[in-house]
Structure formats: structure tokens, C-alpha cells
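Field log, afternoon session.

UNIT: design team B
ACTIVITY: writing a sequence onto a fixed backbone
BACKBONE:
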């Protein structure tokens, strides 16, 4: 009987080349975050369920991975509880902790817990994995990395402007053409108020956020289910589907929400952001997205979403402003805003576009052939000097046929192989082979240090 090993659905192993490419993405994003003055933090993979539940909406709560209590997790559970089969009740008794769903809610908890150790406004970035019990598909995984950047403790809309600059900078460096869509939850709230469904703001935003996924017909069906009349729907649809200059879209939205104070405030905030962006040189197109809603409940102001122009793969980055997320942890009236880059989707886009630098494949610059004995000892000394000069080197570990050692170097895409036998040791030279061209020539250690820039 043969058994096969596997990993859970929605998770992945990463081979060396994939890991190198992923680190390229992380390093690029991290370098931009640092350039704008953001500081790194880390939080645990698991949080208390009381921290996570109720922050992502009903659908989000269903996607939380819950962790069984250690030891006898049935302790305290009665036979009647088991007979009733109330999943939510049982889950709350079985599980006190869960894997984090995103990095924003743990960040809010972090801010409250460490309020006396950080300086406000607090600018942080965080690059760590998150988990969601979602249905795996292309571009959607159960375990994936998020690269978050947030500023908390400031109401200034210049933070939104800076985040859009960061988005533009990251994707420009990665060589991905993107479109940045911006909207404001206050505008959506204003629309809901005007349409008489202000008490249905959450299902309203959830419905229109699905416009690209289920189309206009599907959205209309969901809106009818929450009580929107056909007359109001006829007013709303042209606005949601409006694609024009930002100023024209804002004028149309302003007319629609003209009787809502909240909606008009959202329009003014958007105008401020777009006016500031006009004075900056951005490579990416930034547009007003009337149907952009973002499904998470904690957004209260600007919302941002980024999509690739050359690959159809959903959102690569998204986020927005949250005015009182820390309030649920006992620290009210602290506004924050941030965005999250989806490393997995960025990887898939770069792979499809062939956008990874070819030099990322090579981790070792020079491999030394192993003849054993004194030759190997001589190579170890030379390799130490090359490493001090910043050149990655390795010695083939076993004394085997030279053909096998060359095959290893070729499979690893190592560009140069150094051959040092008795004659080379006597002359103090190195027989260096270029694996790409096949050329082979004698050189010395000083010339080898020049390989760093090749």
C-alpha cells in the first residue's frame, strides 16, 4: 500500500526559485515602505477569537480558521449542547483562539495594547501571512502573505495621498501597469440614505462591491432583496456604471447625495485627495470608482483598490480609512488609514508577464570544483576572501567525477565554475569557466572579485 504526502488545499510549498522571486517582491515593497518613513512590526499568527469576531462582517467571520482549545476541549460542554448541534455555540466553547484573517484588526489591537510605547501618528508596515477558510482558486489561497502599510492617529487626507504615491512607487518598481480606483464609504452611506435604505448600508455595500463579479443584473437582484425599489435602482445604476473624468463623476455623485450631509462630506474628501494628486507625477492612472465598496465593515472613509491592466486577476492591493477600529478595544476616536499589497497575486502577475529579473535565478556566482585534500583546503581559503568581497561562492561538497560537478553547476544556473588543481595551486591562478559561453581561461583572485558586478 503506497501513501502519498500532500499539503492542505489552498496552501503551497515554494521551491528555491519561487522563494527567491517572492523575496524580490517583499524586498521591493519593504524598500518603498521604508522610503516613506514607515516602521516594521510583527504580531502573532493567532489571536483571541474575541479580537477577530465581528470585525469582518458575517461572511468574514465564517472564513476564520478556529483553533481547538488545548487538552480536553470538550470540558464544560454538556450532552445537551452536543445534542442541539448548534455549531456557533459549540465553536465558541471548543475554540478561544483563531488564525488571523488580516493584519489590520491585529494592528488595531496592537496599537491599543502598546499605546504608551509608540509615537502618534504611528506609521507601521507589516509583512506576514494570514489565513482564510476560503474556496481555493487561481489568485485566492487559504494561506497567503499580506504586505500592509498604515498610519494611525491622524485624520489628515494627506495620508491617503501618500498611500497612493506608495502604491504607484511599488508597482512602478515591479514593472506592473495598474489602475488605482478610489471611492469613499461616506459617499456610499449618503447614497443609501438618499435611497431610504440607510439602515441597510452593510448589505448595500456588499451588493454593489460584487458588480465586477456578478454583473449589473446580479447586483440589481441583491439590491431588490434588501428593499430597493425599481425606481431607485434606475437612478443608481447609471451612477455605478459611470466611467468618465474624475471631476465629472464627482459632480454626478454630488447631485445624487445632495440631501445627505455624510455623502457631501465624502465628496469633499475625495475632491481634496484628487486635487493633491494633480500636483504629483504618477505613473499609474488614478480614477474615481463609484461602485468600489470594499466588503470589510470597518471602513469609514476613503477606500482604495488596485488592479493590473495587463492581467485579469482581481485586486492586487486595497485598503481604506477606518475611524474607530481601535474603539472596539477600548481606545475610541483614533483614525487610521492603510492599504495591503497581495504578494501572491503580484507574484502571479509578474510570472504571467515574465516580469521577474533573470538574475534572480542565480544565488551562487562561482562554484569551486572539489578535487579533495589540499586542493579543497586551498579553495576554502580563496572562497572566504571572495565572500568578504561580496561574491557568493560554494564548493561542491563531494569528491566525485568532474562531469557530475559541472552538471550540478549547470542545473543550478551557476554562471562560473572555478577549477584549481595542482598546477593552478603552484601558479597561484584560477582556471575559470564561463558556463554560458563555454570559454575557459586562467585568471587570478583579484580579477575574480570583479564578477560581483557581472
Amino acid at each position: 500500500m503506497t501513501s502519498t504526502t500532500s499539503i492542505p488545499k489552498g496552501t503551497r510549498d515554494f521551491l528555491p526559485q519561487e522563494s527567491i522571486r517572492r523575496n524580490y517582491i517583499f524586498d521591493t515593497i519593504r524598500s518603498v515602505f521604508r522610503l516613506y518613513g514607515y516602521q516594521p512590526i510583527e504580531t502573532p499568527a493567532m489571536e483571541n477569537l474575541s479580537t477577530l469576531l465581528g470585525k469582518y462582517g458575517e461572511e468574514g467571520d465564517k472564513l476564520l480558521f478556529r483553533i481547538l482549545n488545548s487538552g480536553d476541549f470538550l470540558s464544560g460542554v454538556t450532552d445537551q449542547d452536543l445534542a442541539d448541534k448548534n455549531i456557533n455555540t459549540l465553536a465558541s466553547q471548543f475554540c478561544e483562539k483563531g488564525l488571523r484573517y488580516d493584519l489590520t484588526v491585529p494592528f488595531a489591537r496592537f496599537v491599543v495594547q502598546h499605546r504608551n510605547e509608540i509615537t502618534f501618528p504611528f506609521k507601521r508596515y507589516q509583512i506576514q501571512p494570514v489565513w482564510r477558510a476560503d474556496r481555493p482558486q487561481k489568485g485566492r489561497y487559504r494561506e497567503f502573505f499580506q504586505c500592509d502599510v498604515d498610519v494611525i492617529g491622524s485624520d489628515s487626507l494627506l495620508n491617503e495621498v501618500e498611500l497612493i504615491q506608495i502604491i504607484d512607487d511599488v508597482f512602478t518598481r515591479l514593472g506592473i501597469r495598474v489602475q488605482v480606483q478610489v471611492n469613499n464609504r461616506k459617499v456610499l452611506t449618503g447614497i443609501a440614505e438618499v435611497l431610504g435604505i440607510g439602515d441597510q448600508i452593510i448589505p448595500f455595500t456588499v451588493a454593489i462591491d460584487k458588480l465586477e463579479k456578478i454583473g449589473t443584473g446580479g447586483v440589481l437582484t441583491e439590491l431588490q432583496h434588501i428593499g430597493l425599489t425599481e425606481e431607485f435602482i434606475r437612478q443608481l445604476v447609471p451612477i455605478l456604471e459611470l466611467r468618465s473624468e474624475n471631476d465629472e463623476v464627482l459632480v454626478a455623485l454630488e447631485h445624487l447625495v445632495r440631501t445627505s450631509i455624510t455623502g457631501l462630506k465624502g465628496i469633499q474628501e475625495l475632491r481634496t485627495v484628487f486635487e493633491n494628486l494633480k500636483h504629483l507625477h504618477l505613473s499609474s492612472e488614478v480614477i474615481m470608482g463609484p461602485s468600489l465598496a470594499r466588503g470589510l465593515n470597518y471602513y469609514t472613509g476613503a477606500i482604495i483598490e488596485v488592479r493590473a491592466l495587463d492581467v485579469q486577476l482581481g485586486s492586487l492591493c486595497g485598503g481604506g480609512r477606518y475611524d474607530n477600529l481601535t474603539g472596539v478595544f477600548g481606545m475610541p476616536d483614533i483614525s487610521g488609514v492603510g492599504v495591503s499589497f497581495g504578494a501572491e497575486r503580484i507574484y502571479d502577475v509578474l510570472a504571467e508577464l515574465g516580469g521577474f529579473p533573470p538574475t534572480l535565478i542565480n544565488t551562487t556566482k562561482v562554484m569551486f570544483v572539489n578535487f579533495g585534500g589540499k586542493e579543497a583546503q586551498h579553495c576554502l581559503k580563496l572562497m572566504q576572501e571572495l565572500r568578504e568581497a561580496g561574491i557568493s561562492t560554494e564548493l561542491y561538497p563531494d569528491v566525485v567525477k568532474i562531469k557530475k560537478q559541472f552538471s550540478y553547476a549547470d542545473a543550478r544556473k551557476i554562471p562560473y565554475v572555478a577549477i584549481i588543481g595542482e598546477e593552478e595551486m603552484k601558479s597561484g591562478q584560477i582556471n575559470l569557466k564561463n558556463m554560458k559561453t563555454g570559454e575557459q581561461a586562467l585568471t587570478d583572485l583579484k580579477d575574480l572579485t570583479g564578477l560581483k558586478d557581472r
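LOG NOTE: The first strand starts at residue 39 and ends at 40.
NEXT ACTIVITY: expression trials, pending approval
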